[in-house]
Amino acid sequence: MHACAPPDAVVWPRAVGQVQELAALCYRCRVPMVPFGTGTGLEGGVNAVQGGVCFDLSRMDAVAELSLEDFSVAVEPGVTRKALNSRLRGTGLWFPVDPGADASLCGMAATGASGTNAVRYGTMRPNVLNLRVVLPDGRLLHTAGAGRQARKRAAGYDLTSLFVGSEGTLGFLTQATLRLHPLPEAVAATVATFPSVRAAVACTVQVLQAAVPVARIEFLDEVMADACGRYSGTGLPVAPTLLLELHGSRQGLAEQQRQAEEMVRLNGGSVPAWSEEPEERGRLWAMRHSAWYAALALRPGCQGYSTDVCVPISRLPDVVVETQRDLRDSGLTGPMVGHVGDGNFHCLLVFDARDPAEAQRVHAFAQRLGRRALAAGGTCTGEHGVGLGKRALLREELGPEGLDTLRRIKAALDPHNLMNPGKGVHVPSSAHTDTHRAGGLGGPTSATSPELVLQSWELSGTG
């Protein structure tokens, strides 16, 4: 959805000291800096819209300070969630935040990622205990203090939460100390189908109101269920569908299953059959995680744009039904899928990028969806971030005072607007007259030439 904007140069630091040296050099030369983890963001967050240097942190892949007794681990940006859980195999612990893609854990912190397990285990925000951040000028910050991993603290401002969700606009997240969780004793999953979208979403609300401790409760509308069933070969019924997973003790799981089945029946849904076999559950969630590719398969050769919102649980049925009606009225292909246990859902919009009229309808729909969520007391993005696509909606969500406060924080930490400029909390260029402009490192408005940049890096002794 967002036009490609490549950087002028890419660097692959292997240690935090190299990130500091490179950042200090770019800061002195007023060159924009764009952090990069694995590139799985969906709102243009790694587009170098003003050129500059992209810092690919994937080669910093140390897993440090694993403490099984404290349920914590420190990871660098090159460590992905699957790699961490593979490392934890056999310890009885895991990291449950699961956005689907095998994303960088530091990138997940930078974007405030969520995913299928958030209804039970929370999003990235409560699962990050500390961050090691390289600030724009090269200084090193530990947001909770060096080496600290307390589960709660009341010492000063919450700097860790400030950087979680900052989308690379305040500094480089070069290490994240994460909270780990015990593996559940027993797990059971099922697929339940419903006569209508409203019935499926209403069932979700009732399951939560009944305090059934679900770990995952995922929604597919009938278009998405059909697409996923055909793409993965699972043959899902063409009907609004919930995928449910329960975690707990073997004794408690039976009672949870009984409660969930009762809620499904009350809403006219099919009585589900439960699976506790890891292979069968793995196939179920692999199908769910392939939803993006299943949606693209509906219109081969077309482009996809995934957008998300999050609303209070009580408003979820109305907002989902209104959104489905809007899709039909707009003539758009946009199957819906969502982590509805916490009010978050996505529209996977598939359109012909060569058709300007259709692309404009997609853009207009995305704006209406964001404003529909705001009108319902929700947010324009539950987990995808602001990036390039939702800056106007962020202004409407926070109001002028909120946005001004964020801009003041940005200006205090990044006075020359060098960190991922043009994204998230966008600072108008007029406020930073000495910032590098579009045109490249060697362009007429750049602060220095590429030759000088490279010579300076070599002279630092680590080039």
From TrEMBL:
Top-level taxon of origin: Eukaryota
Entry cofactors: FAD
Segments for region (Disordered): 417-450
InterPro entries, per the entry: FAD-bd_oxidored_4_C, FAD-bd_PCMH, FAD-bd_PCMH-like_sf, FAD-bd_PCMH_sub2, FAD-linked_Oxase-like_C, Oxid_FAD_bind_N, Vanillyl_alc_oxidase_C-sub2
Keywords: FAD, Flavoprotein, Mitochondrion, Oxidoreductase, Transit peptide
EC number: 1.1.2.4
Broad EC category: oxidoreductase
Cellular component, GO, one term: mitochondrion
Subcellular location: Mitochondrion
All copies of domain FAD-binding PCMH-type, residue ranges: 3-183
Record-level GO BP terms: lactate catabolic process
Transit peptide keyword on record: yes
Keyword Flavoprotein belongs to the record: yes
GO molecular function terms noted in the UniProt entry: D-lactate dehydrogenase (cytochrome) activity; D-lactate dehydrogenase (NAD+) activity; FAD binding
Similarity field: Belongs to the FAD-binding oxidoreductase/transferase type 4 family.
Function statement: Involved in D-lactate, but not L-lactate catabolic process.
UniProt protein name: Probable D-lactate dehydrogenase, mitochondrial
